[in-house]
Amino acid sequence: DPSSPPLLALLTIPCPWLLTASLSHAMEFLLDPLEPNSLGLRAIFFSHQGHKGSHLEASSDQWKRLHLSLQELLVWLQLKDDELSRQAPIGGDFPAVQKQNDVHRAFKRELKTKEPVIMSTLETVRIFLTEQPLEGLEKLYQEPRELPPEERAQNVTRLLRKQAEEVNTEWEKLNLHSADWQRKIDEALERLQELQEATDELDLKLRQAEVIKGSWQPVGDLLIDSLQDHLEKVKALRGEIAPLKENVSHVNDLARQLTTLGIQLSPYNLSTLEDLNTRWKLLQVGTLRALRFLDQGQGDRHRTSVQGPWERAISPNKVPYYINHETQTTCWDHPKMTELYQSLADLNNVRFSAYRTAMKLRRLQKALCLDLLSLSAACDALDQHNLKQNDQPMDILQIINCLTTIYDRLEQEHSNLVNVPLCVDMCLNWLLNVYDTGRTGRIRVLSFKTGIISLCKAHLEDKYRYLFKQVASSTGFCDQRRLGLLLHDSIQIPRQLGEVASFGGSNIEPSVRSCFQFANNKPEIEAALFLDWMRLEPQSMVWLPVLHRVAAAETAKHQAKCNICKECPIIGFRYRSLKHFNYDICQSCFFSGRVAKGHKMHYPMVEYCTPTTSGEDVRDFAKVLKNKFRTKRYFAKHPRMGYLPVQTVLEGDNMETPASSPQLSHDDTHSRKS
């Protein structure tokens, strides 16, 4: 019926997919059985509706496939980004970064392979969204049902478009991440290759210089006639190695640049850098030392660290000895060492052996300039010469080299106090007297360390910790045998001064037994237990803390008057009676055993090596008050010892010490204060 608008619209719409736009208006006409013309049209209409249903079903399958593909791509992109992140950080040496570069190149090939898949999927989604009418899309979106058809169609579009955008964004981010990582790898490879080439070049030049230096004859073995020729060789080598300073600086600068870039150098590279810097320093120090010894002024000074009729000579096993051309005699001791030992005899009038020994050692310590040597400087020198195997022997050349390093540094800090050649000869002389009386030309590394550390400038307990560490195992524990080695080397120091009997004798077994009994007979002890035992000042080691108190008391000034010699103020140690009020004795009177009328040597006294505080004055007053009511018999029955006695079996009596109570703290750098 030409007059029916729905029918006209149905027949005139060119695109069958838009049929539904007029379907609601034409439905009544098409389904009216009374309309004679509706039968054919109904056939045409329902045929079209069947074709439309199959097309929507195909679109639903394609939408689901695209949705799943986009989800899978997002998961893959996230996994690849995580994988790329795990490739960081940049390695610390060239081979490691080269391997990272190979791994990342394979990663980039994988991205290249995946790129067509991603681009194709994104293009398919774009086409699907462009060609699919909203009428079809609204049927693909199933929930929620209450939404209007147009909004359901828009949601399908929005979901696919969002997923496609996420895939595109993550793909671009992954490629940027990969490019940035490749840039870092390339930069690191360039810098590390430059560092490797620089270290290889420096290593070669150092080796060449070391070969030349290693071919030199030891300075001490040179004949006087050959000194000038050797001096020219040393100067020539110093001229050749001077440019190496720039190479060393360049290598260190490259290492710093890598650190600035956030690249942590590998242990191998760090070890290489440390080795190169150490070798460069040793080469500088070695050639400078040789130059000093051989130069006209310094060479004469070394060969004549002795004056007058004396000449320094070398025995076949490289041990120095001294010839007196006037008396036609030879001596192992340096003339200055002989003078020093003679001066120590002045201290034999000190009544108490611990103080007598400590005062002798203090004089020796100063003569060797070891009172200027800090523990850290000593450790640096020991590490520089790689003295780590404590059981290994050191020959004379090794000892001289290490001592020269120590005294070269001290000379830089105290040029007016340190004469390097003289100090080296004197300290070598003392070490051999203590640990190599037979002059074999060798002492153990542990012996060398024990001698140097015992007389250096450091906190007393820092010395204890360092020495214990030398005999402890890698786990930090020490058994009886290894403790015996330490105590044996320590007791040799007073033994060389003829004072060993006062410290329990040279048999160290009672001391070892005392320490482990203190530790409840454990098979091994740790540092804390060893320190607790040492704080008790065991008889075999009491000379060391007393040495520290002697050093601290040297400059102490006490506002008190000696009741015997009337010295005021008292300089040095002050001894205050805990039996009588206002009774003080200076160290000179106390050490010589002088007493005033009415005061006995067995009366309790307290020792001070620094001025007293008000608190200490009050405490001592209370003790004096208590002791006023004690009888002579009480003090005879309760003698006070200033050390932990060790019961010896074969030799040595208990040493004679003052009946005083040292008041100790650890504030002083070099001593424990009273």
From TrEMBL:
Domain (ZZ-type): residue spans on this chain: 557-613
SUPFAM superfamilies for this protein: EF-hand, RING/U-box, Spectrin repeat, WW domain
Domain WW: 304-337
Alphabetically ordered keywords of this record: Cell membrane, Coiled coil, Membrane, Metal-binding, Postsynaptic cell membrane, Repeat, Signal, Synapse, Zinc, Zinc-finger
Membrane topology label: Peripheral membrane protein
SMART domains per the UniProt record, alphabetical: SPEC, WW, ZnF_ZZ
Location of region: Disordered: 654-674
Primary localisation category: membrane
GO terms classed as biological process: muscle cell development; neuron development; regulation of muscle system process; skeletal muscle tissue development; synaptic signaling
Coiled coil residues, start to end: 178-212
Signal peptide annotation: 1-26
Gene Ontology molecular functions: zinc ion binding
Composition bias, Basic and acidic residues: 665-674
Protein name: Dystrophin
Organism whose genome encodes this protein: Equus asinus asinus
